[in-house]
């Protein structure tokens, strides 16, 4: 069965209802309906319930900075069958911005690597150094 694509308001309402208006990572009052995988990576906007989580302001910043991983957030809100953007697979791990996360923690640049917003938040998080990932392994 295919998960239903929601509009923005229904996404927000559905995520908050599922998570009981509580930040799934720390238990504080939720104020943001966070896209676990950046919506720009989806051809249709990515407004799927399985791609959302309720977060407080602090945890939302941590999620955007990729301090909280996609997997941690999915586990916290009970998502075990996520909808993924075209070209992504459940056999690989990705950060919020679509960069592949290798088992040793290194990242392979993804489709949004040159996106200004993604680069800005990843630099703030200390993930980018001189405009690239530190010790990034490029695929062979």
From TrEMBL:
It comes from marine sediment metagenome. This is HNH domain-containing protein. GO terms for molecular function: endonuclease activity; nucleic acid binding; zinc ion binding. Pfam families: HNH (PF01844). The lineage of its organism: unclassified sequences, metagenomes, ecological metagenomes. Residues 23-60 form the HNH domain.
